[in-house]
Amino acid sequence: MKYRMKAALLAICVSACSAFGFSVYAEGSHAAAAVSDQTAGAGVNHSAEKKQGGEAHSLFPISGKTLSAFDFSVGGVSLGDSISSLSSRGTAEKVIHENTRDSYIFKDMTVKRTAPFLLSYSHRVDLPEDFKFPGKGISEIDVSGAGAKTPRGIGVGSSREDVLRAYGRPLMVLWDGRGKSFHFRYGSGLQEMDVTLTGDKVSSIRLASLTSPVKRGDVSYDSGEGPLYLGDRDFKVAGYELGSTFQAHPFEEWEKKMANPKEEILYFPGYAVRLTVKSSLISALFLTDNRMVTSRGLSLGDDVSTVDLLYGKPHRVEMNVSGSEPKTSYIYFSKGKSDVLIINFSKNKVEGIVNAMNPTK
Questions:
Q1: What is the dihedral angle through the alpha carbons of 166, 168, 171, 174, rounded to the nearest 10 degrees?
Q2: Which residues form the signal peptide (predicted)?
């Protein structure tokens, strides 16, 4: 009961800032802003379909299939194929021969291979062991146009959520704060796929052959006896970590600020940081719109089935039926329960995501 009450309080803390005496100001302005637009998930489209390109867009079904060699292809071109196989795409618009690789440029994609003479040179027995190049054939495919799609139907213009539903949880989610984009990285063996997302849609796709196996990195779950808990990376947002001293990124300025004598909340594009006034320690991080994603690629407006796919069964589920629309909260803990991740839903769509230090610890 103690955890239940505290977790429920955390779940509503984002939408109840005005009840604690916070004042809201727009940067460079002394005019008070409306508190209603502070609520996490404001403006989220809760319909069963998402709007994409001005039209209703049905979500991809969840694939659930593991990656295979077949997945490392796009537009009918696969890693490892011979250059002669490109004849099916017609004549390249441009061919560039460099010292280490050759590039074949088409309208919607660029295909690269290691220069043949370099591959031949790399077979010399007197070279260091780490002197490696990808094998024969196509070693990199860069997609920049909507005409080329992967075997799972993903291409430039696809939605971020469809990428997740087609390929599952990425091995890594990298945020390019300056470029306002994200990189969802997938891989298996000696092959890798990097999907770049800008404005919540795919802006480019890169497939590459590697010289060493893909590293899975932080798998986020701590295995051991009993339940599985979220790892440290799952409680970070935009490079900020709970319990650390806040220092703003040099490339970003806050858009508005809420403050009382003890705490303040700084709002950045897509997310906000709650910190103590006295020591500037970060006590909570939360998403405000889909310009920011979690470490697993989730954002506001996503379907509950996408949450299940990325995070699995929650440790606790809270229900709030006091309003006109029932609301549900999924609650996940870190090992030791020092941190908590709360994902709030309305009509099966995510309307709030909060990372916070557990007040019972």
A1: 70
A2: 1-26
